[in-house]
Design goal:
Elements lengths: L2 E2 L2 E2 L2 E4 L3 E5 L2 E2 L4 E10 L12 E10 L2 E4 L5 E5 L2 E2 L4 E3 L2 E6 L6 E5 L7 E4 L7 E10 L2 E9 L2 E5 L2 E13 L2 E11 L7 E11 L5 E9 L5 E2 L5 E15 L2 E14 L6 H7 L7 E9 L8 E3 L6 E2 L6 E4 L2 E5 L2 E5 L2 E6 L2 E6 L2 E5 L5 E5 L4 E7 L5 E11 L2 E11 L6 E11 L6 E19 L2 E12 L1 E3 L7 H10 L10 E3 L5 E9 L9 E13 L3 E13 H4 L2 H4 L4 E8 L4 E8 L13 H4 L8 E7 L2 E15 L2 E14 L2 E17 L3 E3 L2 E22 L2 E30 L2 E28 L4 E13 L2 E11 L1 H21 L3
Antiparallel strand pairs: 1-2, 2-5, 3-4, 4-6, 6-7, 7-8, 7-9, 9-12, 10-11, 11-14, 12-13, 13-15, 14-15, 15-16, 17-18, 18-19, 19-20, 20-21, 22-23, 23-24, 24-25, 26-29, 27-28, 28-31, 29-30, 30-33, 31-32, 32-35, 33-34, 35-36, 36-37, 37-38, 38-39, 39-40, 40-43, 41-42, 43-44, 44-45, 45-46, 46-47, ...
């Protein structure tokens, strides 16, 4: 230590686990208190270090030096600091003990002021005030804390904490708490909760668990006074979330409906509809923070009847209770009288009780089923349902009438109104379809009309079968044509009138729709007041009429076609295509055509006639067969178009075949032989005739190739085994030879002719031969007027692209 002119210079003294630092300050006398800064060694168990402390240290003169005394009774000033997110220390004075033993820092509350606070993570408002705390280099040696009672929350659950104890060991904290919370929508619903919160202050994780019990045996009641709850149980579950914890409350018990509380006017309508109704329930989850009364499901002990209308039976699968109302959810009503049955779902029926009983129909679509039967055999069924959207409100229905004297008659309809384009006014909309089965009207031998459907629409039309381009019509066939008998196929449209006729044609007369016929054809004719006409149909083989009307069969016929005529902008468009994998009643796995012993080729047809021109495309028609080891496939297409002052006709054809076979291994003495043969042929032919600007151009392109490959494998060898006593000796030898012959021939020819005498030709031939690994090739080419050939080639490519667009490719 250096003292000059009664001023002590900077000084640092080191102890076993501390450092005392003196700044330059005045120094006089034999014993004087000096200001010092103390740095303590880190607390290893907590993995933290305390901040520097301010202390007053007394130096005593001794002989020719100075002594530090009373290190076990130092008074140190500690500033407000946060050791962990959950542990904070208040500013104050602490007692510090230094020396040869490890340092110790003790804080004790004075004048009721706590020395720190521990807040439990994941909770809001649950904390303990620290009254006494002792720290040393090994960790927290002593912690005495008391709960801060009051309101708190865990997730969305609000509760009141009244009692609690805290235990701290190192950095681990365990708290046991007593709390209570109320269910605001249940009168008298008080639930006691015992909570256990534990975790590590340094790095977590924290867990919260709880046990609950009902605070009182008194029954609960709902705000309307209609319900009494008893035998109640409650469970609270906590789960960790990103920002803390979530809480879920589940209740169980028994609920009793008290009809004595119903106003007289409700009694007049519903009588004692729910008299004596008691429902036991379990694990009903409540949304904490916005607790609402749950729904309870019950099975009525007997058929309920409305008092005002004794003939009706009422079925209520579940009830929902709220403040001032009770809702009959998914209510079903049924009438059975003199052979007539009326049943249906009328949705959610809410009975408002606050200002006299009022009824509201909400949260559900009304659906009514009607059944009629008379002793004479007359039967009828119908179903009505309500459809309501912001722009469309209607009643949709379907029904069937039958009697011994008349064939069955079916009908579907939609009646309502839709919003106009201006968004302000509404217009009436109607669509109806009527059908008669088993009419059996013969037209020609093997052609019998078995079902007729007639229909009309006002401000509604069949969607997607008029005013289509050729490409859109092709896509419509791929997506599937509509079933006009189903009201879902109709849509609102500014069309004054739409008329529809639909025929089912079969190969013979039928009785009932389940009998399979050789074929079933579904044909529809459509006309609108806008002079739009459409005819479309589908064809199935070995199919019943009943199956043909189902959605899977409607989407997968063997053939399908659509014709459209536009009377406003005169045009005629026809598209058709076939499907080799069309459905059949006899089997779901074998295509219908194969049941007939033939294969329907995949083919397309597109035709368009307008004032601007005409187009016809037939194909591609794809054919093929497999007869092992031979495979053959081919396709052909023809297109004709006249538009924009030009006319062209084009055809494309292709044919290919392949053959592959191999022999088994043949052994002759020490020799064995095996061989294989692979051969193939492919040819394409394209022809184009084009007329424009008084010039006729003819272009042709042909390609042919064939190949053959022969392989022969020869092995000669022997194997001898010799046995001498316990010794076996095998002597073997073999030699392999492979003989291969490959030959490939390519022929290409392009020819262009023009009406002004021009001719161009480009031909190539190439042959390649490889025998035993030795190859040879020969190429020949003839060419004349290359530019004319290139012009024809470009024209062919452009027209091919035009044809593909016509087909929607």
């Amino acid at each position: 230590m250096t003292v000059e002119n009664d001023v002590m210079k900077d000084l640092a003294l080191s102890g076993p686990d501390f450092i005392i630092r003196f700044a330059q300050q005045s120094f006089t006398g034999e014993a004087i208190a000096l200001n010092a800064v103390l740095d303590l060694s880190p607390i290893s168990a907590l993995r933290i270090a305390l901040p520097s402390l301010q202390a007053s240290v007394v130096l005593h003169q001794h002989l020719d030096g100075y002594l530090l005394r009373d290190l076990g009774l130092l008074s140190a000033r500690i500033e407000e600091t946060k050791l962990f997110d959950s542990l904070s220390l208040a500013a104050g004075t602490a007692t510090l003990t230094l020396g040869l033993a490890p340092w110790r820092l003790a804080l004790v509350a004075k004048d009721g002021q706590p020395v720190g606070r521990i807040a439990l993570p994941g909770t809001a408002g649950i904390a303990f005030d620290i009254n006494e705390l002792a720290l040393d280099a090994s960790g927290i040696a002593l912690c005495a804390a008391t709960l801060v009672p009051g309101p708190a929350s865990i997730g969305a659950l609000s509760l009141h904490v009244s009692e609690g104890t805290l235990a701290v060991r190192g950095t681990r904290v365990e708290a046991r708490l007593k709390a209570r919370f109320e269910l605001e929508d249940f009168a008298g619903a008080s639930i006691d909760l015992q909570l256990n919160v534990s975790g590590d202050m340094s790095n977590g994780p924290w867990t919260i668990s709880g046990q609950s019990h009902i605070g009182s045996n008194a029954p609960w009641r709902d705000p309307s006074g209609l319900l009494t709850f008893d035998q109640m149980t409650a469970t609270v579950d906590f789960a960790a979330a990103d920002a803390g914890y979530t809480s879920t409350v589940r209740i169980g018990g028994r609920v009793t409906f008290a009809p004595r509380s119903l106003p007289a006017s409700v009694e007049a309508w519903f009588g004692r509809l729910f008299s004596g109704l008691t429902v036991t329930f379990a694990d009903v989850t409540l949304q904490t923070g916005n607790v609402d009364l749950p729904s309870f499901t019950f099975a009525p002990p007997e058929a309920m009847r409305l008092k005002a209308l004794e003939i009706f039976q009422l079925n209520v699968p579940s009830l929902a209770f709220g403040k001032g109302y009770v809702t009959l959810k998914d209510t079903n009503i049924r009438l059975a009288e003199a052979g007539a049955v009326l049943s249906g779902t009328i949705g959610d029926l809410k009975i408002l009780l606050d200002a006299g009983p009022r009824l509201e129909l909400s949260k559900g679509k009304m659906a009514i089923d009607i059944e009629l039967a008379t002793p004479g055999g007359f039967k009828g069924q119908a179903r009505l349902c309500d459809i309501s959207t912001p722009d469309f409100q209607a009643i949709r229905g379907e029904g069937r009438i039958s009697s011994p004297a008349l064939a069955p008659v079916e009908a579907t309809f939609t009646i309502g109104s839709s919003r106009r384009v201006d968004g302000k006014t509404w217009r009436p909309v109607v669509s109806i379809m009527v059908s008669e089965d088993d009419v059996n009207i013969p037209l020609f031998p093997g052609v019998v009309i078995t079902r007729i459907e007639l229909g009309a629409g006002i401000n509604r039309h069949v969607a997607g079968v008029t005013k289509l381009s050729l490409q859109q019509a092709q896509q419509r066939l791929r997506d599937g044509l509509p079933d006009v008998f189903k009201q879902e196929s109709w849509e609102d449209h500014e069309t004054a009138l739409t008329m529809v006729a639909r025929l089912f044609v079969e190969s013979s007369q039928t009785t009932g729709a389940a009998t399979p016929s050789l074929y079933v054809a579904d044909m529809t004719l459509l006309m609108t007041s806008e002079f739009q006409f459409a005819a479309f149909g589908k064809l199935w083989f070995y199919t019943s009429r009943g199956d043909a009307r189902t959605a899977p069969f409607q989407q997968c016929p063997s053939a399908v076609g659509l014709a459209m005529f536009d009377g406003q902008q005169p045009s005629l468009r026809v598209v058709a295509m076939t499907h080799p994998d069309g459905r059949s009643t006899l089997t779901d796995k074998i295509p219908a055509a194969q049941l007939l012993g033939m294969r329907i080729p995949r083919a397309q047809l597109a035709f368009e006639a307008t004032p601007a021109g005409m187009a016809l495309v037939l194909g591609p028609v794809e054919v093929g067969t497999t007869l092992e080891p031979l495979q053959v496939a081919g396709s052909t297409l023809f297109a004709l178009r006249s538009a924009g002052g030009r006319v062209y006709a084009i055809s494309r054809s292709s044919l290919s075949a392949s053959f592959s076979a191999s022999t088994r291994t043949l052994s002759v003495g020490p020799a064995s032989l095996s061989g294989s043969i692979n051969a193939g042929f492919a040819a394409t032919l394209g022809l184009l005739g084009h007329y424009a600007n008084d010039t006729l151009t003819i272009y042709g392109v042909a390609h042919a190739s064939c190949w053959i490959e022969l392989s022969l494998h020869v092995r000669i060898g022997f194997s001898i085994r010799i046995r001498a006593g316990f010794v076996r000796i095998t002597i073997s030898w073999h030699q392999d030879w492979d003989f291969n012959l490959r030959m490939h021939v390519d022929l290409d020819l392009e020819v262009t002719l023009t009406s002004d005498g021009g001719i161009g030709i480009d031909g190539r031939a190439r042959i390649e031969v490889n025998v035993l690994g030795i190859g040879a090739a020969l190429s020949l080419q003839i060419a004349a007027n290359d530019q004319l050939v290139r012009d024809g080639r470009a024209m062919y490519a452009t027209i091919n692209q035009d044809v593909n667009q016509l087909l929607g490719a």
